[in-house]
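Thread: quick sanity check before group meeting

JM: Hey all, I'm pulling together slides for Thursday and realized we never actually wrote out the predicted structure for the chain we discussed last week. Dropping the sequence here so it's in one place. If anyone has concerns about the input, flag it before I start.
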Amino acid sequence: MHDALLRAHGIARRYGSFEALAPLDLEIRPGERIALTGPNGAGKTTLLTMLAGVHPPDAGGIAWSDAARGHVGWVPQRPAVYPRLSARENLVLFAGLEGADDPAGTADRLIVRADLQEVAGRRAGALSTGTLQRLNLAVALAGSPRLLLLDEPTGTLSPDQRMRLWQWLDDLVAADGMAIAFSTQSMEEAAARADRVLVLGRGQLLHDGPAGALDDAAFLALVEDA
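JM (edit): ok, ran it. Output follows.
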């Protein structure tokens, strides 16, 4: 594995006769920021859920480094928290499920890290969209992941909320050496926030290269020809 967190070889996913994701290869290294972009139905969420272990690939396989195996954080587009529990209760619960030695202490540290002190006792279902997304991300950090996977993390956020979320994610990468892979509908966001951009279309990997290598015209030509 050398220094790669994971290597996926020929992973694919079908739903009956529908090919949601054609076989593809992918490597992710520590500290990388990878954007997945493309039209709706391109296969972005399918790829992320396979990497997160939510759905197994129908073909191919994923090899993990020893450091990364079992240390993957998953941030789905719809927050995966219990709305009737408080923010702190959710974090205690998920820290326990991740096997933390001190779930309450882990929850308290995540509350500070996610700037949730003022709402720690408030029910998750009563939180604003931006605050709920911070809780959603804090839950994903409960297992001290080496790779963080995010499905359109800024899709429902206002511009100021997007900026705060990206500042936090940038800090995580800088402080922890964590790799992140996120899906986005915005080529502008992909170019600004990622080191590499993967473009998918109709379940096919159309492009894998450095951020900024594709202009809008080239992107449109790729997805229209898919």
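AS: nice. The longest helix spans residues 159-176. The chain has a mean pLDDT of 91.
JM: adding both to the slides.
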